[in-house]
Amino acid sequence: MYIDGFNLYHAVDDLGEPHLKWADYWKLGEIIIPSQTEQLVKVCYCTAYYPDDQKKWRHQQFVNAMKIKGVDVQLGHYVHEDASCRSCGSSWKKPTEKAGDINVAIHLLSDAFLDKVDHIYLITQDSDQSATAKLFKEKFPEKKFTTVAPPNRKPSSHIAKYADAKIKLTLEHIEKCVMPEILIGKPPARRPKEYSPPSGWVHPDKRP
Questions:
Q1: 79: confidence class by pLDDT, cuts 50, 70, 90
Q2: Whether the bond into 187 is cis, omega within 30 of 0
Q3: Which of 16, 90, 104, 195 could form a cystine bridge with 22, CB 3.0-4.6 A?
Q4: How far is CA 205 from CA 5, 30, 88, 140, in A?
Q5: Are 189 and 64 spatial neighbours (Cβ–Cβ below 8 Å)?
Q6: What would you measure as the largest C-alpha separation in the chain, in angstroms?
């Protein structure tokens, strides 16, 4: 399973439930992949640290948690590009994420070329990845490709035309993956207070 980190993050953010951001992506893979016929062998999460100390710390805790869970994390980077306003004439340096899309594509295709996978699940709505899906199906017609839409997002029609199947993630999928506050590892991971569940919330695994 290959994850466009920011594409999924913004969809989860739009749900308005901050505790859903503290979700185990390996478990998410196990939920959507049919365990009777398939085995999850890799989850690749592609992202980058935003150049803001507080956001970066929260993100680092999440990355630590993903590594503890066995997720392969591929980090891109940010650059500051010139931006301007036509109306007022002001200009500034705008942080722009780089390498995320490329990391998804190269790791997905590399694993296919190395024959490490038989079935690809790609979580993104970004139509730029249609080129990845097209090349994958051209080179590996015997392998399967499933496009996975983030919560409350429609699958990209550009990607879907190369897919063997489509899945739509829901709030319930993400909620089942919410992790405990502390994860033990090297380094450990601590849930940021901003991602604490609301008072009275009970994990789906512990509900009657």
A1: low
A2: yes
A3: 195
A4: 25, 15, 53, 38
A5: yes
A6: 60
Over the stretch 124-170, which tens digit does the pLDDT of each residue have? 999 999 999 999 999 999 999 999 999 999 999 999 999 999 999 99
Question: Euclidean distance between the first and final Cα of the chain, in Å?
Answer: 31
**Vertex 14: Cα angle to 9 and 17 (nearest 5):** 90
pLDDT at 88: 82
Least confident among 4-13, 46-55, 133-142: 46-55
Within its chain, how far is the Cα of 178 from the centroid?
14
Mean local confidence (pLDDT), 27-32? 98
What percentage of residues in the chain have a pLDDT greater than 70? 94
- C-alpha to C-alpha distance for 112 and 166, rounded to whole angstroms: 19
Q: In sequence order, which residues have a C-beta less than 8 Å from that of residue 101 and are 6 or more positions away?
A: 4, 46, 126, 128, 129
Answer whether 98's CB lies under 8 Å from 77's CB. yes
Q: Using H for helix, E for strand and C for coil, what is the string for 65-96?
A: HHHHCCCEEEECEEEEEEEECCCCCCEEEEEE
Task: Considering only CA atoms, give the Rg of the chain.
Answer: 18
Question: Structure tokens of 124?
Answer: 């993104």
Strand pairing class (189-190; 72-75): unpaired
